[in-house]
Amino acid sequence: MKSGKLQNMNIPPIALGTWSWGTGGNGGDAVFGNHLSEKELKPVFDTAMEAGFNLWDTAAVYGMNASENILGSFIKDRKDVLISTKFTPRMAGDNDNAVEEILNGSLDRLGLEYVDIYWIHSPEDVQRWTPKLIPLMKSGKVKHVGVSNHNLEEIKLAASILAQEGLKISAVQNHYSLLYRSSEEAGIIDYCKENNMVFFSYMVLEQGALTDKYNRNNPMPSGTRRGEAFNQEVLAKIESLIQEMKEIGSKHQASTAQIATAWSMAKGTVPIIGVTKTSHIEDAIKASKINLTDQDVRKLEEAAKETGVEVKGAWEKSMHESKE
Question: Which residues are CB-neighbours of 312 under 8 A, at least 6 positions away?
């Protein structure tokens, strides 16, 4: 079964992320310093669906199944959701059937017969794992394939492997924000546009650093991964950028979080926003309606560059580097 273009699925302008749903390995407690369960998250899900934000991004590795379990309980018997989940190579070990087995586990937790987008989460051994997607696409268990955290060379390699079977990559999902534009500088976003791939940008808000909620006097939760990345020194350096975002925001009656999101959309990407409160859905609704001018975009990018801050995740390599 061949898939159509992802764009034809009526994907919303913003996708919603569930990285911080549930606790456990790589879960909300360790990464973000929160402890969220179904009770707190159900109103968030309902508010989002009412607003038309129906593309949910998760992964087996988030909270080691916890995120998928929670999302699965919410989408039961619904036909109006689009689900994106991931195969994470480091979960595989020596198991050559890991892609199918991990997908089956995800489908089981989510209560689905197929997934709309299935991602290879990271580029460890592109030649080993990419071919494993082919039978899953042909059987219809995977409607569209995406690659995440891949550089341009790796995206092209994965695309060439699928092309031998007449199949395509539909999407790329990389870290992309005002403070981390590596995918743009390396030509990945242009490549996606040229090849009808949707570019999903994650960490657009830099885990809260671009929301104006935190500053050097009000730091991020200590003992968390994001608190280490955005320590008081880094938060001090980005104050000038936050100020520029506030000024542009006042022109659009928008918060800095909404401006950061609107910027990523103005660049032709679909942001994935982590949502844990109904107010985050209100932010998404507002951001989706903001039209930044070219001058706004230029000012934001200049202010970001002047901070000298570029925050790369511990799991990331530069998008410019070859694997050699």
Answer: 175, 180, 182, 318
pTM recorded for the entire structure:
0.91
**Which residues does residue 169 pair with via DSSP β-bridges, in sequence order?**
145
Task: Specify the number of domains making up the chain.
Answer: 1
Reported as a single tens digit per residue, the pLDDT across 104-140 is 999 999 999 999 999 999 998 999 999 999 999 999 9
In a domain, 134, yes or no: yes
Q: Which of 215, 197, 206 lies closest to 264 in space, CA to CA?
A: 206
CATH number at residue 261: 3.20.20.100
Rounded CA separation 120/155 (Å): 11
**Token pair of 274, please?**
């982590």
Task: Show the domain range for 46.
Answer: 7-208+256-295
Q: What's the pLDDT tens digit per position in 177-216? A: 999 999 999 999 999 999 999 999 999 999 889 998 998 8
Residue 232 is assigned to a structural domain of this protein: no
pLDDT score of 323: 43
- Whether residue 1 lies inside any domain: the answer is no
Q: Which residues of 38-60 are buried (b: 16+ CB within 10 A; e: fewer)?
A: eeebeebbebbbeeebbbbbbbb
